């Protein structure tokens, strides 16, 4: 059976964390924080804009970010990346979608590593046949004084992509910009051939790797960024469709429960996935619009954007009205129908995540229990439970059981924990952490991304894994 969407998302995050040392960060809200240039968050990179511009508060946690990965909730309705009009008409655009991304800040890694990680993930971890993948690179823009990105072309060739599947395009396709102003740069994209080598290729864009090098100023000019960065984004819905062997994002487990609920709620003819002229009565288009829009409405409202009179709220109101009109006029929905779909969205986007975390934690709990039982068998009747074992249960990356839970489990077994020993371990750990941080704190300095980049260029080795103190000043 094909991987479920939640497993696909988890595999992306685990790949960047476990194989390539990325720190996982949560999705930001779809409501942009302090950025009037955006109506909604439209890409994973939005929350890192201060890092790109070199304006990050050096005391903030973000100042320590070197390699991070996440899954970002994105809304593309209104503004520069506006897909509202396309939604429903095709099988790959949504107003709300999740963008999986990885970042390397300040030269932590650049083109070569970014391309090879992406290739490794798609072909080895997800097992997508390499012959189905096409790539594109930026072929320059003489008017803006931008050179063709032949380096990236060479990287793809050296990764084994045949020249026939390495294409190049101009700024329209291969120069990514966040908005009318803001960070931007040449990009390279990975596309998937739905036709599978039969007849003309039918490409769907999967992943965009952007090499952030410029800032688009209000006067339209391009200014160089203080440092270069990697910024990538891949649509989860499209990736899941590919991995589930579907031509349409709507035929995946991210949408099919919604389409089913729409059919039930409207007593409409079943969804057949037709597009264009084939979808004569626009029934299938209506299905897609309603399924898409209810996701967007649910996510926006849960992030605090409500339908309203101007700006993003106005766009959201238009989305709501579009959904109502399509469902009433085409699908003959009864009043109150739209609201009844919200629990289905919750089921798809939230309940499944809870179920997975629940299952993972149950497994840890089971292992913890076995370790406790094994340890108990080695103890005499008046022995206390060893602090080291309790500590490893609570802190070892795999188990991570809360300490009070470990204590409770022991209490239930009628054993006492060596709490003095445990306290000592905690103190030692705290001292260890403080020592690690010392070189920086002593000098009263906070490292900023520029300093970090400079140190890295000079080849100063990292000192520990703590994100704030990745490099010590010596
Ligand atoms: P497209 O050309 O298909 O409109 P894009 O070039 O506008 O995509 P990017 O800005 O490069 O998209 O975003 C990165 C990735 O996010 C894309 O490669 C794609 O997988 C996904 N994506 C972009 N827009 C949407 C959308 N409206 N719905 C679903 N996924 C999307
Ligand atoms: Mg687009
Ligand atoms: Mg594109
Ligand atoms: Mg793109």
Unreliable stretches (pLDDT < 50, length at least 5) are 438-452, 461-474
What is the total domain count?
Answer: 3
Heteromolecules bound: adenosine-5'-triphosphate, magnesium ion
Query: Mind telling me the CATH superfamily name of the largest domain?
Result: Bira Bifunctional Protein, Domain 2
> Helix share of residues?
40-55%
The outline comes out as globular
Give the oligomer, counting copies of the same chain as homo and different chains as hetero: single chain
- Please identify the top-level CATH class of the largest domain: Alpha Beta
Major sheet, described briefly? 9 strands, mixed
Indicate the structural class. Answer: alpha+beta
Topology:
Layout lengths: L4 H15 L3 E2 L24 H5 L13 E9 L20 E9 L6 H15 L7 E6 L11 H9 L7 E4 L1 H4 E3 L4 E12 L9 E14 L5 E14 H8 L12 H11 L16 H20 L8 H20 L6 H4 L1 H36 L9 H9 L7 H11 L5 H24 L6 H9 L17
Parallel strand pairs: 1-2, 4-5
Antiparallel strand pairs: 2-3, 3-9, 4-7, 6-7, 7-8, 8-9
Helix pairs in contact: 3-4, 7-8, 8-9, 12-14
One magnesium ion (MG) binds next to strand 8.
What would a concise description of this structure say?
The relative contact order is 0.11. The protein contains 15 helices and 9 strands. With 474 residues, the protein is α+β, with helices and mostly antiparallel strands.
